[in-house]
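Researcher: I'm preparing a figure for a lab meeting and need a structural model of a single chain. I don't have an experimental structure, so a prediction will have to do for now. The sequence is pasted below. Please return the structure as C-alpha cells so I can convert it later.
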Amino acid sequence: MREDNLLGLQPKRFKVTTDSDHKFEVYLNLAARMRLSGINQLWVADITYIRLKVEFVYLAVILDGFSRKVVGWALDRTLAVRLTLGALEQAIERRQPEPGLVHHSDRGFQYAHAEYIAILEKHHMVPSMSRPANPYDNASCESFMKTLKREEIYTNQYENLEHLRTNIEEFIEEYYNRQRLHSALGYRSPEEFEQRTKSQAESRSATVEFFENKENNKKISKGLLGKGTQMPSPSPDPFSC
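Model: Understood. Here is the structure written out cell by cell.
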C-alpha cells in the first residue's frame, strides 16, 4: 500500500438507532398521503447518534412537517423510550397542538412503545410510521440531522455531554430555527416562514389522499384532518434544504 501511495483508513464505528423488531403495534403511513397547508398538521420525529471522545450519545428531534422548525428535542446517553418522550413532551408544551395532528416516525420501539403511544392518544394525535427501508417518508428529519452534523457536530470538539447540549441548544434555537435559510421555504428561516404563513394556515386543514385502483381507473378520496375544508397547496419538497 505504501508503494502505491495508498492510506488505510479505519472505518468509523456505526450505531444502529432503529430497532423495529418488537412486539408493539405498527401504524399506517399517513404522512406519505398528506398535503399540508399549515403548521401543527404533521410532526416528523427521528433519532441520531453523536460520538463523543469516550461514548456515544443520542439525539431525538421532532420537526414540524410544514415549516421544518424543530419543535422538540432531547439528548441522552440512552436509547430508552425516555429519550423520545423528552422530545415529544417539549414539543407539546411549546406548540399546544389541536386534535388531529399526525405524528410520523420510523418503526423503532421508542415510537411504538405503549408509553409513547399513550401520550399521543392523550393529546389526540394520530400515529403514523414509515414503510420499511423507505427514507423518503422521513426525509425532512434526515435532512436536518445531516445539516446538524455537517454545520455543528463535525466542526467542533465537545468536552462532555453538557458541553454538547449547550451547543446543540444554541444551534437549534438561535441558528437553525431563526436564521438558517431553506430553499424549500422560499429562502426563509423556519421561524420567518411560520410567521408569514400563520394567518393563512390557521383557517386551512391538511388533507389525506387514499388511492384505489379499480378497473384500471385511479380513484382518489380525500379525508380532512383538523378544522376547515379548504383544499391546501402541496407541502415543501422534503429533500430541499
